Amino acid sequence: DLIELIGNIEYHSQSDKFFLCGQFYPEQKRLIFTITDLGVGFLPAIQIKTKGEITEHISAIRWALAGNSTKKDCSGGLALKRILKYCEENEGRLQIISGNAFYASDLEETIWKGEMNFHQKFAGATINLYFRAA
Question: CB neighbours (10 Å) of residue 57?
């Protein structure tokens, strides 16, 4: 799923630049990856695919997390959905920043319902993945 996610970034972001870094924290038993691109974010392609039904950045993130895809002639959209499911089942976390939206799986049960909005738009998209290491 991580490989598919990276391929999707290259395909959907409309940017030829993305950054991937990771760190293992042995004492906390955490493996953290951050993937950032300098592209257009989630909303533009999703807005086109949904014919204008999705107009907010947070709605676009949630649409993608539900397993939907903007691909025209093939199925897709499962990488984020499966990564989110894996995080939920294994004490991990998934965070996404796109446009003016911030989604965090660990905040889903809080008063924020997993989301917040920024006052300024973020350029590109960032995905943070927190995995529990055995």
Answer: 27
pTM of the complete model: 0.89
What does the pLDDT look like over 68-127, one tens digit per residue?
Answer: 888 776 566 688 999 999 999 999 999 999 999 999 999 888 877 888 888 888 889 999
Burial class (CB in 10 A: 0-12, 13-18, 19+), 55: exposed
**What proportion of the chain, given as a percentage, has pLDDT over 70?**
96
Whole-number Cα distances in Å, 24 to 5, 55, 78, 113? 20, 37, 26, 28
Distances (CA, A) of 42 to 24, 49, 84, 86, 130: 28, 11, 16, 21, 21
SS3 (DSSP) at 5 = helix
Q: Which two tokens stand for residue 28?
A: 């906390």
Q: What is the C-alpha to C-alpha distance for residues 22 and 125, in angstroms, rounded to an integer?
A: 17
Crossing angle of helices 57-65/78-89, nearest 10°? 80
- For residue 130 the two structure tokens come to 């927190």
